[in-house]
Amino acid sequence: MEKTSSNKRNIFPGNFIFLFLLVPLIYSCNPTKYVPQGETLLNNSYIEIDRAGINKSDLVPYIKQKPNKKIFGARFHLGLYNLSNLEKEKWPHAWLRNIGEEPVIYDQYATDKSREQLEDYIGSKGYFDGRVSDSVSTVKRKSDVFYNVLLREPFTIRNIYYEIADTNIKTLFYFDSLSCLIQRGKPYDADILQAERSRFERVVRNHGFYGFSADNIAFSVDSTIGNRQVNLYYEI
Q1: Which residues contact 233 (CB under 8 A, 6 or more apart)?
Q2: What pTM value is reported for the model?
Q3: Which of 150, 173, 198 marks a domain boundary?
Q4: Which terminus of the chain has fewer CB atoms gathered within 10 Å of its CB, N or C?
Q5: pLDDT per position as a tens digit, 201-216
């Protein structure tokens, strides 16, 4: 047991020193070395928003493709992968590929899906006529993707109509109505609707209706009434 532990300690410093010696090579290595002909490396993705209202950080999770990781301005893991010889399996080539990262190849389909998901998200925040466009700039087989988000003004809630079938639930709802998270005049926000589902589920279950669930609550929206407003239907 002592001997095995000693060997592991000796291996790690050796690998660390080896990696340190590779740093200059990593910075000088061509990042597109193993990008197939006719393809390009995903270099960066950028999000531009025309106005305040949504944070860029909230949109990043909806970008389907992420470029290779960077450390101190260099794609260190991609560099390690590129230093290997793909035709060799012996050390250090297989080891470099194992700890490295394959090049992220630009994918138009992923860009299209990202654009669709971005539009779905801003719509869920009340920007029903918001639009997202994308463009790609490619230089030296490296592609930058730009997502341009046009928000316009969010739609607000004009009226809320309640449709509650069970009289006991209805009584409980109106007794607790001041705690409702949805308010007239506020921007439509699907996350707030979901939070309201969870809130009222707790209220009902705390009053002994243990079979009640958030799934018993539904919302529908009429966005055709004009003046950038919606009517909201709260159904139980």
Answers
A1: 160, 161, 163, 219, 220, 221, 222
A2: 0.83
A3: 150
A4: N
A5: 999 999 999 999 999 9
